[in-house]
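Quick one: structure for this chain?
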Amino acid sequence: MDKLSVGLLGGRGLVGQTYVKLLEEHPLFKLAFMPSREELPDVEKAKGCALIFSALPNEAAEKIDPLYAAAGFPVFASASCHRMNHPLIIPEINGAKLKELRGGFIVSKPNCTLQSMLLPLYPLHQRFTLKSIAVTFLQAISGAGAGFELEDNVLPFIAGEEEKCLEETRKILEMPTLPISVHCTRVPVSHGHLACISASFETKPTLSEVKEAWESFGPLTYREEEDRPQPHLDLGAGMEISLGRLRSCPLFDIRFTALSHNLIRGAAGGGLLTAQHWIEYAQASCSL
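Got it. Here's what it folds into:
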C-alpha cells in the first residue's frame, strides 16, 4: 500500500519537530506539505493530502485549523483551544468516536499529562468503576515549549494545567461529576511526565486484580523495582506507559506511579496514533 500524503502545521515548534521526526519513517504517512509561513493558511497547496496534523500554538490554531477543516481536511490538532468543542480522543479509550467523522473536521489531542493517568486508570474503570482520583503530575520542561529553562528548582504552578486535566478527564471518561484533585508541578527533567496517582472505585480491586487488568490492556508496562519508573530509564520508544509502586492507600483504594513521554505519547505520537485509527475506520467504511 502506498503511503498517504499528509500535511503539518506548526512544524517548527518542539511538538512539530517531533512530528517531522516520527513521519520520516512512518509506515502509513509521508509528509508532503508543511507551510513555510505558519501564520498564513495555505489551503490550496495542501490539496492531495489525506489529512493535516496541527502543532500550532493556541492563538494560531484557533484561527487556522478551522480553515483547513472547512476546506474538507481532517485536522488532528494539539492545541488546547479545541478540546472542549471537538472530539477529544485517546484511541485506546474512546477511539470508537472516530467512526462518526467524515469530510472536514477537527479532532483534538488531550493534555499531554493525561496519557500517564488515564491509560492505566481506564482498564480499572471498565472493571471496577472509578469513584475518585487524586494525582500529582511532575512535568518535564519540554512540556513548556522551546526555550524554557529550569535548573535546580521546582515550579509548583503551571497556568491552566490543573483546570485542563480536570475538564478533559471528565469529558474523555464521560463522567461530568467525577471528583478529581490535581496538582501540576514543573520539574527539571528534559522529557517525561511522571504522575503519582491515588484512586478509589465503586468495587475495591485487589492489587493482583489491578495488575491483571493492566496486563491485558495494550500500552502498559509494570516495573517491579521499588524505585521505578524513572524518566531517564523508562521512556523507551515513547508510546508505552511505564507503571510502578502499586500499593494500597490509606485514603483511597490504590496508589501507583505512571510515566509517559510528553512529546511522543502525549503529543506527536498520540496524534499519529489517533489518525491511524481514523484511517482504519474510514477504509473499513470505504470513505477514504
